[in-house]
């Protein structure tokens, strides 16, 4: 099991190369820290059910917030694209991979986000890795929230810009850093997530946008966990809006929304756009159908948050701000044990450990979707009370 920190897979015949010895030593150190991770096969049965080790569990560890991976219109759109355009795009978007659905999805995303244009990427991770180094470099400044996703930090590192980290959601600290550092750097980028992936809380976007205006910094937000489940942030307009097609939009891929000039620059400079194959047509078609659904069904899209609030209320926690509710346990071993205890009760709630979250804040990350039933939510809350006390 992924979470169990078991090294037995790696204790075969003695290693023959220094590379293998190196890998085994690193793995042993991770296991000693309860940080070893192993990919686990999960087969999704339906909207909320998952099969693991031959058992059916109710999953609270999926980012398919709207359960659209199984929605008939979305499936139909993907099938139709598969039939019409084939399984793969066959090239990068600048060469030959930009099939007709691309333009439609880019236009729909830009319109939904209140931007002039959009650019698709192979994933949300690749969007951040491509966009940030296209816009800033050596001599520039990137200011990132302390808890920002690994790919925002990765993009900042690749850029070669000076990186400064502000305390989580602390616009006052960001202002202090800008006051100190802005004048000695040519350009500045201020980067954060709309909804924090492991904490479920929301960035103070209005304050950050004011700061960006005051210091002539470019605001970049990553809305991976907000799109489709929280109303789009319309005011003030944000210069660079990044996100993924793989969470509420039930597909695969990433995007960046910005002005036409910025998108045209990305077409020329974003290495993960220029040098990587365009998305498969069926993935684009599925995301487009999912986005159409999101625009047409606001009541349904409110359900993941309503479900999260039912859970936080039942446990006497502060009302959830998003469909993600963290239950911070502290030690990695304790978080793993809590996750296993919930699994024994029929729930999949994966433990999230460092380095994904800061030292000492290992947690259960509970993610709610539209089709979790009230009964399942209440049963999970009772099990959590049992397990965490
Ligand atoms: C999931 C996530 C990503 C990565 O998106 P993928 O499309 O899965 O690569 C990027 N940023 C944030 C904040 C995320 O939560």
Notable features of this structure?
389 residues; alpha/beta; seven-stranded mixed sheet; four-stranded mixed sheet; 14 strands; 17% strand; disordered N terminus
Structure description:
The chain is an alpha/beta fold and 389 residues long. Helix content is 41%, strand content 17%. The chain is globular. The two termini are 25 Å apart. Residues 123-125, 149, 151, 193, 197, 222, 224-225, 244, 246, 254 line the site of pyridoxal-5'-phosphate.
Overall average pLDDT: 94
Which spans have pLDDT < 50 for at least 5 consecutive residues? Answer: 1-5
Overall radius of gyration:
22 Å
Number of strands: 14
The ordered H/E elements are: HEEEHHEHEHEHEHEEEHHHHHEHEEEH
Distance between the termini: 25 Å
Tertiary shape:
globular
The oligomerization state is single chain
Major beta sheet, strand line-up: 4-10-9-8-7-5-6
Overall helicity: 40-55%
Bound small molecules, deduplicated: pyridoxal-5'-phosphate
Total DSSP helices: 14
Going by helix content, strand content and strand pairing, the class is alpha/beta
Please give the largest β-sheet. Answer: 7 strands, mixed
Strand content: 15-25%
């Amino acid at each position: 099991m992924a979470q169990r920190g078991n090294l037995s897979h790696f204790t075969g015949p003695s290693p023959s190369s220094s590379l293998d010895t190196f890998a085994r030593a690193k793995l042993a150190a991770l296991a000693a820290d309860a940080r070893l991770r192993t990919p686990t096969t999960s087969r999704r049965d339906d909207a909320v059910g998952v099969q693991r080790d031959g058992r059916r569990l109710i999953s609270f560890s999926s980012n398919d917030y709207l359960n659209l991976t199984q929605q008939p219109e979305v499936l139909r759109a993907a099938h139709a694209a598969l039939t019409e355009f084939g399984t793969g795009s066959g090239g990068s978007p600048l060469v030959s991979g930009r099939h007709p659905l691309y333009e439609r999805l880019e236009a729909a995303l830009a319109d939904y986000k209140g931007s002039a244009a959009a650019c698709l990427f192979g994933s949300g991770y690749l969007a951040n890795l491509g966009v940030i180094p296209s816009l800033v470099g050596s001599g520039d400044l990137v200011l990132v929230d302390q808890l920002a996703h690994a790919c925002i930090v990765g993009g900042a590192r690749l850029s070669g810009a000076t990186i400064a980290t502000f305390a989580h959601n602390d616009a006052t600290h960001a202002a202090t850093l800008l006051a100190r550092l802005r004048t000695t750097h040519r350009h500045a980028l201020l980067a954060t997530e709309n909804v924090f992936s492991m904490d479920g809380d929301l960035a103070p976007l209005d304050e950050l946008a004011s700061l960006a205006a005051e210091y002539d910094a470019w605001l970049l937000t990553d809305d991976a966990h907000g799109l489709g489940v929280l109303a789009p942030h319309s005011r003030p307009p944000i210069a660079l809006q990044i996100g993924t097609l793989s969470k509420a939009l039930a597909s695969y891929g990433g995007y960046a929304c910005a002005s036409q000039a910025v998108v045209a620059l990305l077409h020329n400079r974003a290495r993960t756009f220029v040098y990587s194959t365009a998305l498969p047509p069926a993935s684009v078609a599925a995301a487009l159908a999912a986005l159409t659904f999101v625009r047409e069904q606001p009541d349904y899209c409110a359900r993941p948050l309503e479900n999260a609030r039912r859970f936080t209320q039942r446990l006497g926690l502060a009302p959830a701000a998003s469909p993600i509710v963290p239950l911070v346990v502290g030690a990695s071993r304790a978080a793993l044990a809590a996750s296993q205890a919930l699994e024994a009760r029929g729930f999949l709630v994966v433990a999230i450990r460092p380095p994904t979250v800061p030292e000492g804040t290992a947690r259960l990350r509970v993610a709610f979707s539209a089709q979790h039933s009230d009964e399942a939510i209440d049963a999970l809350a009772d099990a959590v009370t049992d397990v965490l006390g």
